[in-house]
Structure formats: C-alpha cells, structure tokens
Amino acid sequence: MKKIAYLCLITALFASGCSQETQQQETKPKMDHHPEKQADHQHGAEHGGHHHDKNKSNAFMNKMSFDELVARFDNPERDDWQKPEEVIAGLGDLTGKTVMDIGAGTGYFSFRLAAHGANVIAADVDERFQEYIEAEIEKRGVDNVSTRLVPFDGPKLENEEADIALIVDTYHHLENRPAYLKKVLAGLKPGGRFVVVDFKKEESPFGPPASHRIMATTVKEELEKAGFMVDNSDDKTLLYQYILTGKKQE
Description:
Blueprint: H1 2-27, H2 35-39, H3 56-61, H4 66-73, H5 78-82, H6 84-89, E1 98-102, H7 110-115, E2 119-124, H8 127-140, E3 145-149, E4 162-168, H9 177-187, E5 188-199, H10 216-226, E6 229-234, E7 241-247
C-alpha cells in the first residue's frame, strides 16, 4: 500500500508540473513571423524613417508607400518652402565639419550639406532609404557622405563624434525625446550644435496635420532639460517652420 501511495503522489506531482508548463506555454505571447509587415511600418518621418504607430505622426506617414515618400521628399516644389540653402547658410562654414543628418530620407539635405564641404552621416531607421542614398552616392560620385542605419531610440553617434546634428521635419516623430536628446548631446563635440527644423503648430499647405506638430516653445524646453543651451530661435526664415539651435557646452 505504501508503494502504491508513493506512486500516486509522484504521478500527481508530475501531472501538476505538466499542467503548469502547459499554462505557461499558452500564456506566452505569439511571435510575429511576418517581418515584411514590420517593414511597411518602419518609415514614418517627414524627412526620414520613423517609429511605431504609438505616435500618431508616424501612423500618419506609414500610410504612404516608399515610392510616395520618395516623390514627396524630392518634390522640386519643396525647395520653395523648405529653402535648404538658407537653412544650411545658417550653419556657418561646414568645411571639414562632421554633420549627422537625422532622418535623412532620400538625402535631400545630406547631399546639399556635402556640397558645402561637410562630412555627412546620413542617418535613418529605414534600410530602404539607406540603400537609396548609397545608390545616389555612387551615381553622384561623392566621397563625403556615408550612411548609418540607426535604431528607433537614438542617433547611434559615437561619443563626441559630430560637430552638428541636424534634424529636419522629423523631431515631432521622436517618441522618447528626453532620452533621445541626451544621446544626441553625448554624440556632439564640445560646443557642437543640434539644429531642429520643424513645422509651426498651425495649418499649412505642406507637412503633417497641425495636431501632430510640436510648438517651438515646447522644443526649446525639451532641449534645455536635456542639457542644451538654446542660443538661437528663428521663426522668420521659413514660412511654415521654425529653426531652433541647441548648443553643447564647451
């Protein structure tokens, strides 16, 4: 009888363990085995690739196909309101300077920065745009533009690597901005600058809906909290956008 009772106890414990294991397996989240679905949602920035659909701006941009985004970024009419040469002129002499173009997209700003003598790091989260820029690099025969595939949560700058980080029409897509800005700050050389160009919080013929935009005063506060000194705020140069410059202490 003792042997039978012992066997019954062992059987009961084994059955209980199997039941718990089955429950654990049933509660494990199912993995998505369709990476192509994720690729459709990688690009969400006005100027380059961005993030998850938690951000309404990213969800808005994710509705567009890759070809539509290329056409939008490289539309010749964009020059009229984006005024890239005026934006770049405000950066000063770029000869030999290392400039990261965050959310580079098609390289709209990257190649213009390179033409002014900068060594440009064209950064984006979307591999398709990185490949697009690499093809343009080869076609144009430039040697001072390189690509860098970056994660969603940071610019992947090495410590004190860049003189300038430029983010155009993309700031409102950043999801965890306090953490992101601290990484940008660490990646700038002493005295380096972080230049933010983004849409004024009002309706305009171009850009995202006004509800997706961030006020310049909010951007200024966020930059200062991250450790930047905001030494320039310009809402006159561009009709639909503001330009804010945060400087790292020397």
